[in-house]
Amino acid sequence: DSGVTQTPKHLITATGQRVTLRCSPRSGDLSVYWYQQSLDQGLQFLIHYYNGEERAKGNILERFSAQQFPDLHSELNLSSLELGDSALYFCASSVGSGAYEQYFGPGTRLTVT
Amino acid sequence: AQKITQTQPGMFVQEKEAVTLDCTYDTSDQSYGLFWYKQPSSGEMIFLIYQGSYDEQNATEGRYSLNFQKARKSANLVISASQLGDSAMYFCAMREPPGYSSASKIIFGSGTRLSIRP
Hints:
The complex is a heterodimer of chains A (about 110) and B (about 120).
Chain A: E1 5-7, E2 10-13, E3 19-24, E4 31-38, E5 42-50, E6 53-57, E7 64-68, E8 74-78, E9 87-94, E10 103-104, E11 108-112
Parallel strand pairs in A: 2-11
Antiparallel strand pairs in A: 1-3, 3-8, 4-5, 4-9, 5-6, 7-8, 9-10, 9-11
Chain B: E1 3-5, E2 10-14, E3 19-21, E4 24-26, E5 33-39, E6 46-52, E7 60-61, E8 64-69, E9 74-79, E10 88-95, E11 106-108, E12 112-117
């Protein structure tokens, strides 16, 4: 158990809908990272937040947004969902912004039908 | 642009043998970090080892060591005395340190599926 929690574990929704994925980092970690893992794209870095501020953006679509709250939990919002958004979404956390060690949550498996 | 290449999509190794998983990277930056992660069939991602570009010694963590050859831009993972529980997908990843670039991204290779035979 990495100490990072993600909810929900599974999510099934229809195209065009909007969902919110939630992540709670390990106690004491200030950084949260979001990743998408799909069969065709592999593991893709989406976005990094450190202590509430966005630090880096990867291959995150405009339909997706994220934020980190004062209690350091983070949410990833996915809107206007398409079939291709079906994937495993991971959250990871680290102590600082350098990410020398990142601890991953169990992931949220999103299925868009 | 940064790139990570893992050329071995799958490997079979006999239990108790050592195994080397290949990883080459491409970056024009001098300061960067390299990671290896393990993903068992259960799906979670497990951090294994980290190597900074300025670290002079190869990183080691228990049975894992990172064979870092900077001039060749390779960061191979060596697992000594393999165990059945080592069967998993292994990912090599690279990132720039924060503040070095306005686009401090993390990129992953396509992974190597390691299967340990009893």
